[in-house]
Amino acid sequence: MSSVKRGNLASEEMSSQVRLRLLPSARCLFDEPIQVKVSGLRSRQVVALRARSTDERGVVFSSSATYRADGSGKIDLVSDPSLSGSYVGVEPMGLLWSMRPDTLHKKFQIKNSLNPHVVRFSVHEEEGEGRMLAEATNERILIGDGVIRRPVKEGNIRGVLFTPPGRGPFPAVLELYILGGALSEKRASLLASRGFVVLSVVAYGHDDMPRNIKELHLDYFEEAIQFLKKQDKVGSKGVGVLTISKTGDVALSIASYLPDVEATVWINGCCANTALPLYYKKSQILPALMFDLSKMIPTESGANMVKNVLHNPLAEENKATLVPIEQAKGRFLFAAAEDDLNWDTKAYMDEMVERLKHHGKENFESVSYPGAGHYLEPPYGPYCPSSFHWLACKAVLWGGGAQSHAAAEVHLWKKIQEFFRAHLSVDAAQTIAKL
């Protein structure tokens, strides 16, 4: 037998002993961390760990990191550092958040909560063609066991209602997703899996709704709040409101003009009403702060810089667009990414904090994240540096760095849940009466 053949046999024997484990389980919620462990390697062997997934549109996302086994041939991503690749250092969930699309400027997309995020992890030899030594699949579900998902088409409301298992009572949250004309269920389904009744609604483009709109009406969201409050397991006297980006200013207006809003989470939005004029009871209450798309700056990546296209909301001629949050009776959680390249989120947050202080208000808390970009979502999804922008109709840069952004998502997701639990007062008697 030649030395080459002996080497191949030795390699085959070695690979059959290599084991890749995902703990505590290969099936978990999208927002839950897992522990990736490898055993059966040679002492101090260097290998590549890879992750690969395909989103709803068929776009492939992947990552790779180089690790060195310890003296007993083991690797544990909780304690061992990546030496090179998609990220470096000790990052237990790095293979997930560092995944990149095989096509430029694509955002990872799973909008339907019934579709799991399936990730294939694998271990490969570092030398040669990187022969695979072991693999394991992680099914990251968006909707927890026992959560009821019900499409809603009642009155003017179009969306999806998520209800946790058990009798409750549960706090209620209205989750808004407006621009882009499609419903995204990820935040809502995961929050419901954590013990909230959540109604996710859109303003256009879903089901039989108009495909385009020229104005927004608060009456629609008022109807959604009343629908949500009537649900059997809802125990909170009022509701929470959760949203991001353009819809952030809609959430501010809901909190400022409508009753029954106890807690509002604003993520990377604006302090003024943007893009579309806002109406209530057939009268315009806020004009729209507009954009100058000629200020877009192309970059070598093929994506555009749009941070400075929005007109200044603090300029005298634009102050009528500012949302009067000082008249809100509920509480606010403001979250700003300091490297948001969509617009100047941190400055908008600072303006709102100062305005509330000026009016003697203490009904808010704020948090900012250095190195984070625009799309702060539930944690452990692939970081998105650039993708298509609904208003610009082109790919744009969202800002941030993958590592800092991922850490911000973990912190913020926990903070959102704590904020809603602290400020959505639950009345058990009220729920029993409904039942």
Automatic annotation (TrEMBL):
InterPro entries: AB_hydrolase_fold, Acyl-CoA_thioEstase_long-chain, BAAT_C, Thio_Ohase/aa_AcTrfase, Thio_Ohase/BAAT_N. Residues 217-425 form the BAAT/Acyl-CoA thioester hydrolase C-terminal domain. This is Acyl-coenzyme A thioesterase 5-like. The active site is at S245, D340, H374. The lineage of its organism: Eukaryota, Metazoa, Chordata, Craniata, Vertebrata. GO terms for molecular function: fatty acyl-CoA hydrolase activity. Residues 31-154 form the Acyl-CoA thioester hydrolase/bile acid-CoA amino acid N-acetyltransferase domain. Belongs to the C/M/P thioester hydrolase family. Transmembrane segments: none annotated. One of its GO terms (biological process) is acyl-CoA metabolic process.
